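Researcher: Batch entry, complex prediction.
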Amino acid sequence: MKQNYKDTIPETWRAMSKVFVALGDEHRQRILLLFEPGDRLNVGQIAAVSTLARSSVSHHLKILREAGILRAEKIGKEVWFEINRDWLLSVFDNVSNYIREST
Amino acid sequence: MKQNYKDTIPETWRAMSKVFVALGDEHRQRILLLFEPGDRLNVGQIAAVSTLARSSVSHHLKILREAGILRAEKIGKEVWFEINRDWLLSVFDNVSNYIREST
DNA sequence: TTTACATATCGATGTTCTTCGACATATCAT
DNA sequence: ATGATATGTCGAAGAACATCGATATGTAAA
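Model: Structure tokens for the complex:
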């Protein structure tokens, strides 16, 4: 076994932490699954189909954004979200490779 | 946008939920990163290098096991854990494919 | 500049998760 | 049987998270 329990967690995994936490919540999964290829959705659209209050949706969107899963752009009064698709895929690639090579 | 917020979450994602939750915790990441290729570790070995109490380690191992990330086999007094490596890789593959094709 | 609208933040409350030590169970050796 | 060892489970205490309505901020239209 490795003896690195107290060591720094590999950078690959540190970036993953927030992604894993974000994707572990069912509401946040549902939000992510709303997106079709190329979609940009604003908070109102997402809140409209959600079962949660607007402020709760906002909270979950913040977590998804801070995890890097969504990118947000404010245009006028609205904030448009889109999936950070390629980055998200590369993150899963990295973790797959780490598991393949080091475990 | 899709209109499926209240629908059933795809099976791919339901299986992932527990994996994401399990890997979102730093202690559980550290446990996973202890394993070298082919390693089988018992609870005592893991608890010995951990900063947590034995019962807390047991708790985290249960979560990792129930997520499918670790497999456990009891031999005599000891319980040996190993990474469910191929299954874990296939899970990441599935999610990558889903993101590639449907978002 | 007033009003209306979209979104974010705040503060309170309830819920879930983490952690621990104590105890229970299971297995082996004496 | 008794004692020693490995692990799991329980219950309590505290920490972290989710949720909501109310309020604040920022933007555009009237």
